[in-house]
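Subject: sequence -> structure tokens, single chain

Hey, anyone have a minute? Need the predicted structure for the following. Not urgent.
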Amino acid sequence: MPREAGAVVRAYVGFSLENAALLDLMCSVKKDAQASTALLKAGRRWSELIEGLMLEGQRRGEVCEGPLEWIGVPVFATLHGFADLAATGMIPPEAAERGLDEAIAFILRGCAPDGRA
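Reply:
Had a minute. Here:
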């Protein structure tokens, strides 16, 4: 993902830390057949934002070529996993910022065309 995607990552993790119960509810409810249209639209907007960042990164040569779902799933798994670990206290608050920096660097390396950011 382009380097400016770090702001999106930080916003997602920040939201997750401040709203852990809400994030858990949102993730479980959107899989429900009775999920609201507004929730489904919000999920699509988030996906479109991430896809746009990855496409821009590919256009600029910062993200490896390939189907977005092959690139996006590991990115989201890393991001959501870190957010969940931090929100549940598995990553101590005093280590979260450094850990987030490391997670962002890991994501950038993984997306880079040659595997190095």
